[in-house]
Fold:
Amino acid sequence: MHKIAIVAWREFKSTALTKAFILSAVAAPVLMGAMAIYGPRLFASKIAPLKGQLAIVDPTGRLLTAARVEFQRDRLLGRLRDELIRRTQVTKLPGNQTLGPTAPNPAAGESSPEALITAGLVTDVAIEVVGEAGLEALPRLQASLGEGSLVAVAVYVPPAEVPATSAAAPAGDQRQEELTLYVQAQTNIRHSSVIEDTLATALSRIHIEAAGLSVERVRELSRAPLVKTVRINDEGKQVTEDRDVKVFRIVVPMIFMMLVWMGSFMSGNYLLTLTIEEKSNKVMEVLLSAVSPLQLMAGKIIGQAFVGLVMLSVYIAAGIAALVAFAFVDLINWTDLIYVGLYYIMAYFMIAAIMAAVGSAVNELREAQALMLPAALVLMVPLLLWLPISESPNGVLATVTSFVPLMTPFVMIVRITSTEPVALWQIALSLVEGYAASVAMVWVAARVFRIGVLMYGKPPSPWELWKWMRAS
Amino acid sequence: MNLPPLKLRAVCKSFGANKAVQDLELEVPAGSLCGFLGPNGAGKTTAIRIIMSILLPDSGTVEVLGGSALDNKDRIGYLPEERGLYRRMRVGEFLEYVAALKGVTRRGLAHDIKQWLDRLELPLTYRQRCQELSKGMQQKIQFLAAIIHDPDLLILDEPFSGLDPVNTSLVSRLIEELHQRGKTIIFSTHILHQAEQLCDRCFLINNGIKLLDATIADIRAQFDPRTIEVEPLNADDAASSLLDIPGIDSVSNGRSLELFLKDGAEPRSIMKQVIERCDVRSLRLRRITLEEVFVRLVRADLAAEDVVRMRRELTDA
Structure:
């Protein structure tokens, strides 16, 4: 037992306590977490404010009037904020600042436009609208656009004045109005789309006024609150509230599965490369004069298990930190984390068994890939199927794949962390089946390892591996 | 407590159709320094791996230090033929790791390791990475890894391969010193004059079969001298005139002439005849070297029954 611990400690030390590991496996998620929290502020400084003059060629003068209203700074920023809320379904800024309710009373608890601009969520806009009556001004305006004295030029053709250019347009046919926007080639897309959207809003203002209605009234009436979906389970208890959760409902199971997949694969990979290194360095027999092959393999597997646990903990901690920062902490189901831990250990032992067996049998990494292919294909399945499985966690596909040994841990994590509860007997059965499979795989790996570590020369065929396994 | 540290009884091991070791019987007395000889592919490494319980024999029993090598790993020092170091590990760290695996956890280990490194003429390597060392230096580190835990039984598979003459004599001095401290040492080699200089006993295997197992003194007594070395004053015509002497099988013409005697020929009368036929600067009956024994025993054209016969002769003697 003592020797296993020594091997495990060396394995852990030579993997986890290296600069490369700390940089790649630990610093990466910490950095990702930091980006998630502070990223918007970093980006905020990079979005240049949209400032300058917009020229509108409008023979009627109606669009010009409407545009002057819609381009008022407070009105425009308020509209951008509502749009943001509708798109992201997020009503809170980092640091629990509210973005303001979407409807119906926008007065209460609104964030100031400045706060949104500072947070990098809304572009700062200050547009002065100037008018031109005739189309003959267009070349001159475009020239000013090129010089940079204008940010954009809009040309409005009202419906009545669409010229009947050909016979294709019979007389009396109602033609749609046209609006063309000219901007510089290098104009930021966010800037041009703000101008496009605001002009479209101005057009709708003309239409509403033309129908003799109150613009504010129509806008107020067409505003609808987001539909709030509440999921309840068999006992009528509330399971989740969908409002801010829709995206997370799909993404969370995938994230958990990816975490376990990456954690077990990365540490399994370290196991593989270190074993191959020991073989190709010929240090293996020196080790075997001090420990038995079984002790060596056990030490290596245990050492790398801790490497994986460190990685997984760092990733999960970074994830939780990010959720806390965004005030989504109530999304985490803490019992799910226990399951994730249990299934991680299961997944790790399965993958580690494969890696140890393959690593012991080959002489270089290239040869390992060929031997790993069948297992890798099976392991890819949960990655490809996570969407249908998380959408229908109790469907036939999900249930069947839950009990295919290599897939069990990954599929079960997706099922448990998605919304529909999974029958307890299935969880229990999958745990029993999965752990039995891991133990069997480690046992097989030990038999291959024992012989493989001393074999040099050409890599074994699957048939030879089978013979090694059967050998006494 | 003079149990033989190593005892093999009827050990057989095959890899498929290839019989690597056949019916191997060995008994190494405590405190002896044994050479384990044989040409490449003779089965030396397989036999050593069986002794170390790295391979299990198909049949037969192995007793190392009164039990299995697995139970006594911490009392055995082993320098495998396939040996290496962790390339990126520091020398001191590597030796401490190996020592820890061998159950040495005492304080002051680092100090001891540094002293050993000084003795092996590797000062200041303690903090160097293994990959920064030359091949010869790495060989010495590996030797040190085999003896760092002060084992009672030392098994060295080709300990001198890759060493230059200076380091070879350094390592042989260390082996001799360990021998004098009462350790039992077995080392395999195919460089015979080394074995001859160092060992007090040797066994020879070929094609997995033991051909010889005796002390060096016994071997010399058993194989009577069959070569007469002549240094003639006038080398040009001496060779042809000497070939006529009855009882001489062949003459090799190097710096001096070597006359190989036929079986049953009487060395004394032949030497007399040599003096009669030419003027000599020196003339001597040469002691047989292990090399000659080796070549005589391991002749590729030896028929299987000849091997069995020879083996019986040699071991029954």
